[in-house]
Amino acid sequence: MCYMLYLLGKVYTLLENNNKLTRREIYYQMKPLVKSQAVINIAIDEVSRFLTVGQWHLNIVSHCGQIYGNLKLFWASGEITDCNAPATMIPYNIEDIVEMQSTACFILVIEKESMFHKLLEEDLPNKLARPFIMITGKGVPDLNTRLFLNKISNMMSLPVFILVDADIYGIKIMLTYRFGSAKSCHVADQLAVPNARWLGVFPSEISKYGMQHQKLSNRDKRLTKLLLECPFMEDQTTISRELNVLLESNKKASIEGLIKNNTFLSESYLPMKFFNQDFL
Asked: pLDDT tens for residues 217-275?
């Protein structure tokens, strides 16, 4: 409770002075009072739920994801951000964006930063038939990346496709992008992209492509079974089918397991997925 009161005071000061802090910066300011970053994260989530607003409305920001593509962001200040550079960070003051311009036909979300850069190295943007925007949340996506994806998909009415590992953690990341998470369910309408589609990698593709793989751990099996038991999975029959394939095959694989040569992803796998409309 003391943490909550202190944090509420901190939020009041941030809003009053129109300043912004990251979770990490707040932790260092409160370090003499708390044991770990996890304590601060829990307190911020509790305050956000208590006030029924997103942490960005509290001027608590995150700055993690990256974006690349033919996209220009126009700000209330009059500034313009050109995202046509490989290392463009997703901005944290997303609410200040007043206009977006792009020739993109869709958005491709990549789970891992390493694969995001590999696909750029393979020159994927020039190999697919239509222009698109690439985004990575660098693993489990932060709120800012999800908020940005929600905004860009709504403002520009662009379809979203998600590429993740063929394991329970990749599938959970895909579901977080689509439906949100328990911690942020009070602002799900601002974060979730329910029309996004799972492009791959599917557990059923592990054998299909002869991918390098590993056996499921007991934790993997337990988490997969728990996910299958979630009420919302009753309406997700195709995803449930892939989760069952994961259990029955006892195989999991990373996106890297697809790599047959230096250009397989950009010249074979992804073009074929889009051509066949092979997504869930």
From this structure: 999 999 999 999 988 888 889 999 999 999 999 999 999 998 878 889 999 999 999 99
Nearest 5°: the CA angle 14, 16, 18 is: 60
CB 88 within 8 A of CB 67: yes
Nearest to 242 by CA among 253, 231, 196: 253
- Strand boundaries in 24-141, DSSP class E: 60-61, 66-69, 71-75, 80-82, 88-89, 97-102, 106-110, 132-136
Work out whether the CA dihedral 148, 190, 139, 183 comes out positive or negative: positive
What is the DSSP track for 71-85? EEEEETTS-EEE--S
Instruction: Tell me how crowded residue 85 is: count the other CB atoms within 10 A of its CB.
Output: 11
181-227, pLDDT tens digit by residue?
A: 656 565 667 778 989 999 989 999 999 999 989 999 999 999 999 99
> Which tokens in the block code for residue 28?
């260092």
Q: Are 216 and 224 in contact (CB under 8 A)?
A: yes
28 is annotated as an active-site residue: yes
Contact 136, 112 (CB under 8 A): yes
Which residues have a Cβ under 8 Å from the Cβ of 23 and sit 6 or more positions away? Answer: 37, 40, 41, 44, 60, 62
Question: Could you tell me the two tokens for 234?
Answer: 């009753």
At 150 the pLDDT is 92
d(CA 50, CA 1): 12
Q: Which of 3, 28, 68, 269 is catalytic?
A: 28
